[in-house]
Amino acid sequence: MKQDNILLIGAGGQIGAVLTEALRTVYGADHVIATDLKPLENQSGPSEILDALDGAAMEAMVKKWRINQIYHLAAILSATGEKDPMWAWNINMTSLFNVLEIARQRSLNKVYYPSSIAVFGREAAHQNTPQYEVLIPETVYGISKVAGENWANYYYRRYGVDVRSLRYPGIIGHQSMPGGGTTDYAVDIYHYAVQHKPFECFLRADTALPMLYMADAIRGTIELMEAPTNRLSVRTSYNLAGMTFTPDEIAASIRKHKPDFKISYKPDFRQAIADSWPASIDDSAARHDWGWKPDYDLDAMTKDMLEHLAEKYA
Ligand code: NAD
Ligand code: SER
Protein backbone atom coordinates (compact mmCIF):
# COMPACT_ATOMS: atom_id res chain seq x y z
CA MET A 1 0.00 0.00 0.00
CA LYS A 2 1.15 3.54 -0.78
CA GLN A 3 1.80 5.78 2.19
CA ASP A 4 0.47 9.12 0.99
CA ASN A 5 -2.23 10.92 2.97
CA ILE A 6 -5.05 12.23 0.81
CA LEU A 7 -7.62 14.93 1.54
CA LEU A 8 -10.72 14.56 -0.59
CA ILE A 9 -12.88 17.71 -0.74
CA GLY A 10 -16.48 17.25 -1.92
CA ALA A 11 -16.39 13.56 -0.98
CA GLY A 12 -20.16 13.38 -0.53
CA GLY A 13 -20.88 14.12 -4.19
CA GLN A 14 -21.61 11.87 -7.16
CA ILE A 15 -17.95 11.27 -8.04
CA GLY A 16 -16.43 11.90 -4.60
CA ALA A 17 -18.40 9.12 -2.93
CA VAL A 18 -17.05 6.54 -5.37
CA LEU A 19 -13.54 7.97 -5.67
CA THR A 20 -13.12 7.97 -1.86
CA GLU A 21 -13.65 4.22 -1.67
CA ALA A 22 -11.45 3.57 -4.73
CA LEU A 23 -8.60 5.63 -3.25
CA ARG A 24 -8.95 3.80 0.05
CA THR A 25 -8.30 0.48 -1.68
CA VAL A 26 -5.09 1.94 -3.17
CA TYR A 27 -3.79 4.00 -0.24
CA GLY A 28 -5.44 2.32 2.76
CA ALA A 29 -8.69 3.39 4.43
CA ASP A 30 -6.96 5.46 7.14
CA HIS A 31 -4.94 7.45 4.60
CA VAL A 32 -7.91 8.95 2.74
CA ILE A 33 -9.72 11.71 4.65
CA ALA A 34 -13.17 12.30 3.17
CA THR A 35 -14.62 15.80 3.68
CA ASP A 36 -17.73 17.67 2.66
CA LEU A 37 -20.07 20.40 3.87
CA LYS A 38 -22.34 17.77 5.36
CA PRO A 39 -21.52 14.79 7.63
CA LEU A 40 -20.59 11.75 5.53
CA GLU A 41 -22.25 8.43 6.29
CA ASN A 42 -21.15 4.81 5.82
CA GLN A 43 -17.46 5.64 5.71
CA SER A 44 -14.78 2.95 5.80
CA GLY A 45 -12.18 5.56 6.87
CA PRO A 46 -11.86 8.99 8.50
CA SER A 47 -14.23 11.79 7.52
CA GLU A 48 -14.65 15.42 8.55
CA ILE A 49 -16.87 18.40 7.84
CA LEU A 50 -15.01 21.01 5.79
CA ASP A 51 -16.25 24.10 3.99
CA ALA A 52 -13.78 24.55 1.13
CA LEU A 53 -14.35 28.31 1.31
CA ASP A 54 -12.63 28.32 4.72
CA GLY A 55 -8.93 28.30 3.88
CA ALA A 56 -7.82 28.29 7.53
CA ALA A 57 -9.94 25.24 8.29
CA MET A 58 -8.59 23.51 5.17
CA GLU A 59 -5.02 24.22 6.23
CA ALA A 60 -5.68 22.96 9.77
CA MET A 61 -6.99 19.73 8.29
CA VAL A 62 -3.94 19.37 6.06
CA LYS A 63 -1.72 19.76 9.16
CA LYS A 64 -3.83 17.48 11.36
CA TRP A 65 -3.81 14.56 8.92
CA ARG A 66 -0.33 15.22 7.45
CA ILE A 67 -1.87 15.51 4.00
CA ASN A 68 0.39 15.44 0.94
CA GLN A 69 -2.25 15.09 -1.82
CA ILE A 70 -5.57 16.91 -2.29
CA TYR A 71 -8.40 15.80 -4.57
CA HIS A 72 -10.59 18.89 -4.93
CA LEU A 73 -14.02 17.80 -6.18
CA ALA A 74 -16.30 20.40 -4.56
CA ALA A 75 -18.01 22.59 -7.15
CA ILE A 76 -21.35 23.98 -8.27
CA LEU A 77 -22.23 22.26 -11.56
CA SER A 78 -23.63 23.64 -14.80
CA ALA A 79 -27.40 23.72 -14.26
CA THR A 80 -27.34 24.76 -10.60
CA GLY A 81 -24.72 27.41 -11.32
CA GLU A 82 -27.00 29.21 -13.79
CA LYS A 83 -29.52 29.85 -11.02
CA ASP A 84 -27.03 32.09 -9.15
CA PRO A 85 -23.91 32.78 -11.21
CA MET A 86 -21.98 34.93 -8.67
CA TRP A 87 -22.56 32.39 -5.89
CA ALA A 88 -21.34 29.56 -8.16
CA TRP A 89 -18.29 31.56 -9.30
CA ASN A 90 -17.35 32.33 -5.69
CA ILE A 91 -17.57 28.72 -4.56
CA ASN A 92 -15.76 27.28 -7.58
CA MET A 93 -12.92 29.81 -7.57
CA THR A 94 -12.42 30.55 -3.85
CA SER A 95 -12.26 26.85 -3.03
CA LEU A 96 -9.72 26.26 -5.81
CA PHE A 97 -7.49 29.14 -4.69
CA ASN A 98 -7.55 27.79 -1.13
CA VAL A 99 -6.38 24.41 -2.42
CA LEU A 100 -3.70 25.82 -4.74
CA GLU A 101 -2.29 28.18 -2.11
CA ILE A 102 -2.09 25.46 0.55
CA ALA A 103 -0.44 23.13 -1.97
CA ARG A 104 2.11 25.84 -2.84
CA GLN A 105 2.84 26.95 0.72
CA ARG A 106 3.07 23.45 2.16
CA SER A 107 4.77 21.87 -0.88
CA LEU A 108 2.17 19.12 -1.28
CA ASN A 109 3.05 16.29 -3.66
CA LYS A 110 -0.01 16.45 -5.93
CA VAL A 111 -3.39 18.07 -6.46
CA TYR A 112 -6.30 16.71 -8.52
CA TYR A 113 -8.79 19.21 -9.94
CA PRO A 114 -11.48 18.04 -12.38
CA SER A 115 -12.49 20.24 -15.28
CA SER A 116 -15.35 19.54 -17.71
CA ILE A 117 -16.57 19.49 -21.29
CA ALA A 118 -18.35 22.68 -20.15
CA VAL A 119 -15.14 24.61 -20.99
CA PHE A 120 -16.23 24.44 -24.66
CA GLY A 121 -18.85 26.65 -26.25
CA ARG A 122 -20.57 26.71 -29.60
CA GLU A 123 -17.55 28.26 -31.36
CA ALA A 124 -15.62 25.04 -30.70
CA ALA A 125 -15.71 22.12 -33.16
CA HIS A 126 -18.85 20.15 -32.29
CA GLN A 127 -17.55 16.71 -33.26
CA ASN A 128 -14.31 15.22 -31.95
CA THR A 129 -13.47 18.50 -30.22
CA PRO A 130 -9.66 18.84 -30.08
CA GLN A 131 -7.56 19.15 -26.93
CA TYR A 132 -6.46 22.66 -27.88
CA GLU A 133 -9.61 24.43 -29.03
CA VAL A 134 -11.15 27.88 -28.64
CA LEU A 135 -12.73 28.06 -25.15
CA ILE A 136 -15.78 30.35 -25.00
CA PRO A 137 -18.10 28.66 -22.47
CA GLU A 138 -21.69 29.83 -22.05
CA THR A 139 -22.24 28.90 -18.39
CA VAL A 140 -20.69 30.33 -15.25
CA TYR A 141 -19.63 26.76 -14.47
CA GLY A 142 -17.74 26.53 -17.77
CA ILE A 143 -16.14 29.94 -17.23
CA SER A 144 -14.96 28.85 -13.77
CA LYS A 145 -13.49 25.63 -15.22
CA VAL A 146 -11.60 27.49 -17.97
CA ALA A 147 -10.22 29.86 -15.32
CA GLY A 148 -9.48 26.95 -12.98
CA GLU A 149 -7.58 24.99 -15.63
CA ASN A 150 -5.47 28.03 -16.40
CA TRP A 151 -4.73 28.65 -12.73
CA ALA A 152 -3.73 25.00 -12.40
CA ASN A 153 -1.33 25.45 -15.31
CA TYR A 154 -0.03 28.71 -13.75
CA TYR A 155 0.67 27.08 -10.36
CA TYR A 156 2.47 24.23 -12.12
CA ARG A 157 4.66 26.45 -14.30
CA ARG A 158 5.30 29.27 -11.82
CA TYR A 159 5.51 27.34 -8.53
CA GLY A 160 6.01 23.71 -9.54
CA VAL A 161 2.74 22.57 -7.89
CA ASP A 162 1.90 19.21 -9.50
CA VAL A 163 -1.76 19.86 -10.35
CA ARG A 164 -3.38 17.29 -12.65
CA SER A 165 -6.76 17.57 -14.31
CA LEU A 166 -9.28 15.82 -16.55
CA ARG A 167 -12.11 17.37 -18.56
CA TYR A 168 -14.77 14.86 -17.55
CA PRO A 169 -17.74 14.34 -19.86
CA GLY A 170 -21.08 13.53 -18.18
CA ILE A 171 -20.40 10.85 -15.55
CA ILE A 172 -22.89 8.01 -15.12
CA GLY A 173 -22.87 5.63 -12.18
CA HIS A 174 -25.19 3.50 -10.04
CA GLN A 175 -23.47 4.22 -6.71
CA SER A 176 -24.50 7.87 -6.20
CA MET A 177 -26.84 10.53 -7.53
CA PRO A 178 -25.65 13.52 -9.60
CA GLY A 179 -25.67 17.05 -8.20
CA GLY A 180 -27.16 19.59 -10.60
CA GLY A 181 -25.57 19.02 -14.00
CA THR A 182 -26.93 19.06 -17.55
CA THR A 183 -25.97 15.41 -18.11
CA ASP A 184 -27.88 14.20 -15.01
CA TYR A 185 -30.75 12.82 -17.12
CA ALA A 186 -28.50 9.95 -18.17
CA VAL A 187 -28.30 8.74 -14.55
CA ASP A 188 -31.94 9.44 -13.63
CA ILE A 189 -33.23 7.52 -16.65
CA TYR A 190 -31.87 4.20 -15.33
CA HIS A 191 -33.52 4.73 -11.93
CA TYR A 192 -36.88 5.24 -13.67
CA ALA A 193 -36.33 2.22 -15.91
CA VAL A 194 -35.66 -0.23 -13.07
CA GLN A 195 -38.70 1.07 -11.20
CA HIS A 196 -40.84 0.54 -14.34
CA LYS A 197 -41.70 4.24 -14.46
CA PRO A 198 -41.95 6.38 -17.63
CA PHE A 199 -39.19 9.00 -17.88
CA GLU A 200 -39.59 12.64 -18.93
CA CYS A 201 -36.31 13.94 -20.35
CA PHE A 202 -35.30 17.61 -20.04
CA LEU A 203 -33.25 17.42 -23.26
CA ARG A 204 -34.43 16.84 -26.84
CA ALA A 205 -34.33 13.29 -28.20
CA ASP A 206 -31.46 14.05 -30.59
CA THR A 207 -29.08 15.83 -28.17
CA ALA A 208 -25.75 14.03 -28.45
CA LEU A 209 -23.32 14.55 -25.53
CA PRO A 210 -20.04 12.94 -24.46
CA MET A 211 -20.48 10.61 -21.48
CA LEU A 212 -18.33 8.25 -19.39
CA TYR A 213 -19.14 5.35 -17.08
CA MET A 214 -18.15 5.85 -13.44
CA ALA A 215 -15.84 2.82 -13.38
CA ASP A 216 -13.86 4.28 -16.28
CA ALA A 217 -13.84 7.78 -14.75
CA ILE A 218 -12.44 6.52 -11.44
CA ARG A 219 -9.82 4.33 -13.10
CA GLY A 220 -8.79 7.18 -15.43
CA THR A 221 -8.47 9.60 -12.53
CA ILE A 222 -6.20 7.27 -10.55
CA GLU A 223 -4.18 6.42 -13.68
CA LEU A 224 -3.59 10.11 -14.39
CA MET A 225 -2.54 10.75 -10.78
CA GLU A 226 -0.12 7.81 -10.86
CA ALA A 227 1.39 8.62 -14.27
CA PRO A 228 5.07 9.64 -14.23
CA THR A 229 5.35 13.44 -14.31
CA ASN A 230 7.50 13.42 -17.42
CA ARG A 231 4.70 11.72 -19.41
CA LEU A 232 2.26 14.61 -18.89
CA SER A 233 2.25 17.23 -21.63
CA VAL A 234 -1.08 18.88 -20.72
CA ARG A 235 -1.09 20.98 -17.56
CA THR A 236 -4.41 22.72 -18.09
CA SER A 237 -6.72 19.68 -18.34
CA TYR A 238 -6.87 16.55 -20.51
CA ASN A 239 -9.85 15.88 -22.78
CA LEU A 240 -11.36 12.55 -21.70
CA ALA A 241 -13.87 10.56 -23.76
CA GLY A 242 -15.88 7.42 -23.18
CA MET A 243 -18.95 7.30 -25.41
CA THR A 244 -21.43 9.62 -27.10
CA PHE A 245 -25.19 9.11 -27.20
CA THR A 246 -28.52 10.92 -27.40
CA PRO A 247 -31.52 10.47 -25.07
CA ASP A 248 -33.17 8.51 -27.86
CA GLU A 249 -30.19 6.13 -28.06
CA ILE A 250 -29.91 5.54 -24.30
CA ALA A 251 -33.66 4.77 -24.23
CA ALA A 252 -33.16 2.26 -27.07
CA SER A 253 -30.28 0.66 -25.16
CA ILE A 254 -32.51 0.32 -22.06
CA ARG A 255 -35.31 -1.20 -24.19
CA LYS A 256 -33.00 -4.11 -25.10
CA HIS A 257 -33.51 -5.20 -21.46
CA LYS A 258 -36.84 -3.50 -20.68
CA PRO A 259 -38.91 -3.48 -23.90
CA ASP A 260 -41.79 -1.58 -22.25
CA PHE A 261 -39.66 1.38 -21.15
CA LYS A 262 -41.22 4.72 -22.14
CA ILE A 263 -39.57 8.12 -22.57
CA SER A 264 -41.07 11.54 -23.38
CA TYR A 265 -39.35 14.87 -23.96
CA LYS A 266 -39.86 18.27 -22.35
CA PRO A 267 -36.72 20.38 -22.96
CA ASP A 268 -36.02 23.14 -20.41
CA PHE A 269 -33.20 25.69 -19.87
CA ARG A 270 -30.65 22.86 -19.83
CA GLN A 271 -31.20 22.32 -23.56
CA ALA A 272 -29.33 25.56 -24.38
CA ILE A 273 -26.44 24.45 -22.17
CA ALA A 274 -26.28 21.05 -23.88
CA ASP A 275 -26.48 22.68 -27.31
CA SER A 276 -23.37 24.73 -26.51
CA TRP A 277 -21.32 21.61 -25.62
CA PRO A 278 -19.51 19.20 -27.95
CA ALA A 279 -21.15 15.99 -29.12
CA SER A 280 -17.87 14.08 -28.98
CA ILE A 281 -14.35 14.66 -27.70
CA ASP A 282 -10.88 13.93 -29.06
CA ASP A 283 -8.92 12.43 -26.17
CA SER A 284 -5.85 11.39 -28.15
CA ALA A 285 -3.51 13.41 -25.88
CA ALA A 286 -4.65 11.40 -22.84
CA ARG A 287 -4.33 8.15 -24.81
CA HIS A 288 -0.85 9.05 -26.00
CA ASP A 289 0.59 10.51 -22.78
CA TRP A 290 -0.63 8.12 -20.08
CA GLY A 291 -2.40 5.30 -21.92
CA TRP A 292 -6.06 6.28 -21.38
CA LYS A 293 -8.62 3.85 -22.80
CA PRO A 294 -12.26 3.50 -21.70
CA ASP A 295 -13.72 0.01 -21.15
CA TYR A 296 -17.45 0.72 -21.36
CA ASP A 297 -19.63 1.56 -24.37
CA LEU A 298 -23.34 2.43 -24.10
CA ASP A 299 -24.70 -1.13 -24.09
CA ALA A 300 -22.09 -2.42 -21.63
CA MET A 301 -22.87 0.48 -19.32
CA THR A 302 -26.64 -0.06 -19.62
CA LYS A 303 -26.31 -3.74 -18.66
CA ASP A 304 -24.16 -2.92 -15.63
CA MET A 305 -26.35 -0.01 -14.50
CA LEU A 306 -29.57 -2.03 -14.73
CA GLU A 307 -28.07 -5.00 -12.88
CA HIS A 308 -26.75 -2.88 -10.00
CA LEU A 309 -29.86 -0.72 -9.69
CA ALA A 310 -32.11 -3.80 -9.76
CA GLU A 311 -30.22 -5.02 -6.66
CA LYS A 312 -30.52 -1.60 -5.03
CA TYR A 313 -34.29 -1.36 -5.56
CA ALA A 314 -35.00 -5.04 -4.82
P1 NAD B 1 -21.62 16.89 -6.93
O1 NAD B 1 -22.43 18.13 -7.07
O2 NAD B 1 -22.30 15.58 -6.95
O3 NAD B 1 -20.76 16.96 -5.60
C1 NAD B 1 -20.09 18.11 -5.20
C2 NAD B 1 -19.89 18.01 -3.69
O4 NAD B 1 -19.23 19.21 -3.28
C3 NAD B 1 -21.20 17.92 -2.90
O5 NAD B 1 -21.17 16.80 -2.03
C4 NAD B 1 -21.25 19.23 -2.13
O6 NAD B 1 -21.82 19.11 -0.85
C5 NAD B 1 -19.78 19.59 -2.05
N1 NAD B 1 -19.57 21.01 -1.84
C6 NAD B 1 -20.20 22.06 -2.43
N2 NAD B 1 -19.75 23.21 -1.92
C7 NAD B 1 -18.81 22.89 -1.02
C8 NAD B 1 -17.98 23.64 -0.15
N3 NAD B 1 -18.04 24.99 -0.10
N4 NAD B 1 -17.12 22.99 0.65
C9 NAD B 1 -17.06 21.64 0.64
N5 NAD B 1 -17.82 20.87 -0.14
C10 NAD B 1 -18.69 21.50 -0.95
O7 NAD B 1 -20.48 16.95 -8.05
P2 NAD B 1 -19.78 15.74 -8.79
O8 NAD B 1 -20.63 15.37 -9.92
O9 NAD B 1 -19.35 14.71 -7.83
O10 NAD B 1 -18.52 16.50 -9.41
C11 NAD B 1 -17.26 16.49 -8.77
C12 NAD B 1 -16.32 17.33 -9.60
O11 NAD B 1 -16.22 16.79 -10.91
C13 NAD B 1 -16.75 18.79 -9.78
O12 NAD B 1 -15.63 19.62 -9.77
C14 NAD B 1 -17.38 18.81 -11.14
O13 NAD B 1 -17.28 20.06 -11.74
C15 NAD B 1 -16.55 17.78 -11.87
N6 NAD B 1 -17.28 17.19 -13.00
C16 NAD B 1 -18.34 16.37 -12.79
C17 NAD B 1 -19.01 15.83 -13.88
C18 NAD B 1 -20.19 14.91 -13.71
O14 NAD B 1 -20.80 14.50 -14.71
N7 NAD B 1 -20.55 14.52 -12.49
C19 NAD B 1 -18.60 16.14 -15.17
C20 NAD B 1 -17.54 17.01 -15.35
C21 NAD B 1 -16.86 17.52 -14.24
N1 SER C 1 -21.92 16.68 -15.93
C1 SER C 1 -21.51 18.02 -15.79
C2 SER C 1 -22.67 18.95 -15.89
O1 SER C 1 -23.61 18.58 -16.57
C3 SER C 1 -20.50 18.38 -16.85
O2 SER C 1 -19.47 19.04 -16.24
O3 SER C 1 -22.64 20.01 -15.34
Kindly state the mean pLDDT as a whole number?
98
Tell me the strand order in the biggest sheet.
Answer: 3-2-1-4-5-7
How many distinct domains?
2
CATH superfamily of the largest domain: NAD(P)-binding Rossmann-like Domain
Task: Characterize the largest beta sheet: strand count, sense, and whether it forms a barrel.
Answer: 6 strands, parallel
Q: Based on the structure, what is the oligomeric state of the protein chains?
A: single chain
Strand content: 5-15%
Low-confidence stretches: none
Q: Could you say which overall geometry the principal axes of the C-alpha atoms support?
A: globular
Helix content: 40-55%
Give every kind of bound small molecule, once each. Answer: nicotinamide-adenine-dinucleotide, serine
N→C terminal distance: 36 Å
Computed structural class: alpha/beta
Radius of gyration using CA atoms only: 19 Å
Q: What's the order of the H and E elements?
A: EHEEHEHHEEHEEEHEEHEEHEHHH
What would you say this structure looks like, in words?
The protein is of the alpha/beta class and about 325 residues long. It folds into two domains: about 5-170 and about 210-240, Rossmann fold; about 175-210 and about 240-314, UDP-galactose 4-epimerase, domain 1. It is built from eleven helices and 14 strands. Strands 3-2-1-4-5-7 form a six-stranded parallel sheet. Helix 2 runs parallel beside helix 4. The mean pLDDT is about 100. It binds nicotinamide-adenine-dinucleotide and serine. Nicotinamide-adenine-dinucleotide binds near residues 12, 91 and 180. Serine binds near residues 116, 118, 182 and 183.
